[in-house]
Amino acid sequence: MRLGQTVQIKVERDGEDFRNRYIRVFDGWGEVLAASYEDSGHEARATPPTSEVTVQFHRWVRDSQTGKPVRDENGNVQIEDATVVWDEEQIRDGSWAQALPWLGMLESTSRRGKDLFWDALYGARPTPAQRSKVYTGTGWREDSDFGPYFVHAGGAITAEGSLDVHTRLTGGLQRLRLPEPSLDAEQLRAAWLESTEVLRQMLPARVIAPLLGLVWQAPFVPVPLITYVYGAPGAGKSSCARQAMHFLAPGLTEESSESPKTILSATNAGDSAIAMTRILANARNMAVLADDFVDTDVRKAVARFEFLVRAVFDREGRKVGGQRGGVKEAPQIDASVIATGQIGLNGSALQRTFSIGLNPGEIKDPYRTFGLLEQGPRREQRALLGSSMIRWIAKHRDVLRDHYFNGDENTTHTKAQLGKLWHERTAPLPHDPGAKGRMKDAAVNADHGIRLMLRMLVEMGAISQEEATAFHTWADQGIWDALVRQEGGASNPGIMAIELLREALASGSAHLVTTDGQIPDEAEQLGWTRRGMPPQDTWSPNGVRIGAIKNNGEGEPRLYLHPRVTIDIITRMASSTGEPITDTVHTIGSSFIAHGWMNADKGGNQTLGRRVEGRFTRVWDIPLNVLLGDNGSGMD
Questions:
Q1: Cβ of 422: how many Cβ atoms within 10 Å?
Q2: Does the model's pTM come out above 0.85?
């Protein structure tokens, strides 16, 4: 530093001698206080780049007119200081040069000038020996000294208690903040009775029990099915979801218009679908609330929800092209999601969700009920239980995971045992096999989450085994009641298509003919309207022709459906109800085959060649009684 400036010294020959030439690099001088790199919790093969640099700068105070240094009463040059923080993007693209504390600091903004700046900054004064770590994602990490630890917005939790770490979470993830865990049995018991037993007393078990199960399971293992609470405005769906979320995010409340109410905003004016998946990728081993899927354009809301559902269910990050070719894959999603909204679901989105409907009036006096449940002390007590459960998991994590994933079906608390239990319980239900599989998986995760919390409390001496059994019995019934209310048909493309065709025929939007173009028997049921009085009455077709009926004499009548016409009519019918579908000729045809209603040809084609009114055409060939309701599938 020379005359209040950082300079580069060049030694030049001056005749027989040498002299120093001083080249100004920047005005003032500075030192690097800290440099950090990000730990998002996702494994990376490459060493992470520096993501943040903190620099403190100093310079002489100069007279604005003369440029000379200003001195104090003792004759010392006055010095002013400033501290700046540059993030990874600024460091990478060079925009840090526009984020210096004072104008005109840098002698040259050329590439060479910027390189000289960094050389001088790191070379002129001592810098930190090591980069520090900043956590940008939640979830589990491993340390050779104290074993597994769990990162949240406020620090980390180990088997021994809290750990002070530097975190920088984006957006609503900052609200996933937990208190110091407790080993005090009396404190845990009071928290349980005052904050959780009251949920059991005041909210429907079929709503709150699955939500509690998901939130308590999330730190142990990600839940791939989104739990979706839907209903009309004022039903209390968002408030129910928040009560469960308090075990990981006690700050969520509706106390005022300024209070944080969710982790992700799913409204049209909130987070985009891509933004939500990016945020979720950094919410490992956490439950996240995506609140209020609603839009003036229902199709946009459904599309946004379907994008999120697929990303969470597949647990894969988005794949994007790199600037220099190749494909980059975003980190996988290990978050467990609760969503709320007013949109109806069908097709593939419904197949990947555990849906809970809630009607206005089911929760008596919602304003008073949630006002009591969301009182600050109760929210903090739930968070205390959540952090204490995570501490307990950290202490036994390897044993718990080995038991859950590798234990056999005759051992309690194992995935195999719970899978067998819920498979047997759901077997008699009238849902299709795909829906039953989804229901079983959702029940296993919710059930195990409940058991985890209860095991911790019993082991800690906070509640008795009898109290735990009573709570589990209540929760088990709630999970079962939610299961039996799952929509079976709407998640199956074939059944959904048949139901929409029935509505199209009944509403006058479509009709059927015979294969020779005549009016079919039971014409009124098949989309025809009688006009006039006998004997001058006539039959008129309604809407578009969707197919033809083949009468095989004494054999079973067949229905030949025109695939693309069928897709068009059911898409219009679904859109008119505010529940648009995204199924295709392939998904519906595959579903018809899976139900045994038709067979593919030898080449694997789902459409078969048939003659209708003398012309050869490719159709879906299914029994007529499938449409008329006599198919033994519970569709009557």
A1: 22
A2: no
